[in-house]
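Sample A.
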Amino acid sequence: MTDVHVVALCGSLREESYTRIALEHVLDAAEAAGASTELLDLREFELPVFDADRDREDAGDAAMIAERIREADSIVLASPVYHGSYSSPLKTALDYSGFDEFADKTVGLLAVSGGAFPVPALEHMRSVCRALNAWVLPHEAAVPRSSAAFEDGSFVDSKLEERVATLGRRVVQYARIEPEPDSFESDHNVGAKGK
């Protein structure tokens, strides 16, 4: 699997981001499994709020982000949990993407929460990926109570660390899985056509 390329999007804009720390652990595990990796830290890009009347090429770095996603064999989406869902920077990056970037790609999901229940954010990201006809890994990683989950950039809980590392290994292992037939959601996703 040395020719697998994993691209990860970090949906947190915080300087001291637990999401970014957890995502780096995912990418370390993917590299250990033989993949090349790339972190797209959304705080480093100009990404205006999505406007369907604006071409992607005229929307800051949106076209460049979409191109880097398109070049990936597997994609990891990582987000902090805000109001029970994922972040607006990640949503904006996804809105500027479409079937060309996600269809038939393997996607891994990571949600990081200050509270105890990050699961709805994972479900929301999964729904978006299904609408783009991606193959989403059954294994997902959630980091609850994130302020207590790390010490000096390392996980405190070895079971949680293993769950996050497993996500990194799985995006490499299943990068070339034969995708399912198109999903019902993608068949009706006219918003992504032509992206």
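Sample B, a different protein:
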Amino acid sequence: MPPQALHANWTAAWHALGVTAPDDALRLELQRRYSEPQRHYHTMQHLGECLAWFDQEQALAERPGEVALALWFHDAIYDVHAHDNEARSADWARQALQAAGVNDAAADRVHALVMATRHDAVPEGRDAELLIDIDLSILGAERARFDEYERQVHLEYGFVAEEIRLPRRRAILQRFLDRPAIYATPRMHALLEARARENLQWSIAG
């Protein structure tokens, strides 16, 4: 996503919550985080792809500004050795929203949206469904992009021995495949469900 589009998305999200966007320091710090060297998939490429999907599908959201900011923050903290990345990212999001003057209820909803990206429960509510569908859109990408994504994830976890990493990865992908539906929103389901299942089966079989 071009820099001007990123800036426009950021500004519009804060305005939708009834506040002026914070100065550029916060946005630039988030972009710096997404550019950290340990990242190969959870990068500005991933954030840009998510925000592009959001721009296309935001009419589905009940509170689009909250969904957009949850996307900005959902991988803000990414330590491949940690198990609390989503919680730390969600806490940062809530603190940033409160500091900008967003009311506590909205800040708490954004916190909950970021926590939903743990993918350990079925999302509840239209905004969570849209957010998770966007975060999982990569599973239904064209094969070349999906294969790139797989390589990127394996690079992020390259410190794990292959005989451990590959079975774990297949198990994670199988859990998505075992769901009755990967995508909850009707349009993204129609666009991505079949290809996502093909991609997952391809990866697991490989």
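Observation for Sample B: The two ends are 31 Å apart (CA to CA).
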